[in-house]
Amino acid sequence: MTSLIAAAAFFVLIHLLVSGTRVRDALTGRIGQGPYMGLFALASVGGLVWLGFAFGSSRGSADNDVLWGMTPATHGLQLALQLVAMLLIVPGLTTPNPTSVRQEGALDRPEVVRGMLRITRHPFLWGVAIWAIGHLLVNGDAASLVLFGSMLVLALFGTASIDAKRKRALGAKWDAFAAQTSNAPFLAIAQGRQRLSLREIGWWRILLAVAVWAALAWAHPYLFGVKAL
């Protein structure tokens, strides 16, 4: 369990204390954007591999206490939450977004705030947060709390970290974009600053998200050793 906690702390902290802070600005100023991105990607992949192996070994350990289990109600809710997560993650990954890595140039588009960005400027991270919440509902063991809890913390605080990083780098261009969007899903729509447009999101993105959700649910026992259905 110690290795899992260390791996989770490493993965979360390199994102929250390096990637989105002035530490990143100092590093890129010293070694350049390209070398920094390469080193950070290497550290992130290494952290994920460490996290995966540590989680696998911790789940079978004697100190992996179980605080709650899955019920029929939480199982059904989990499946629904995973669908919502995919409906954010898949369109989020396929929509030009200035909050995404190396996509700051999307701000120069004449109408950047379209589709999924009308709902939230961080669709991928909010999808990860909902994905983590769903898994916490049905996995009450200590190892799962560390793994999915760390992903939830990283996703939620990561939105604010990215906003701060983009504001420092892009200034007034970022402020204009942020004023038209919201971090929290549907907040800009509720406040009357945006409108919902499923057509702009693209039906192919929505159908692809449903297909990815169904494929992951079916393949879950083969990929992760646990049945989702």
From TrEMBL:
Membrane topology: Multi-pass membrane protein
Gene Ontology cellular component list: membrane
Domain NnrU: 4-227
Location(s), subcellular: Membrane
Primary location: membrane
Residue ranges crossing the lipid bilayer per the database entry: 36-55, 67-90, 124-157, 203-224
InterPro entries given in the database record: NnrU_dom (IPR009915)
Keywords: Membrane, Transmembrane, Transmembrane helix
Protein name listed in UniProt: NnrU family protein
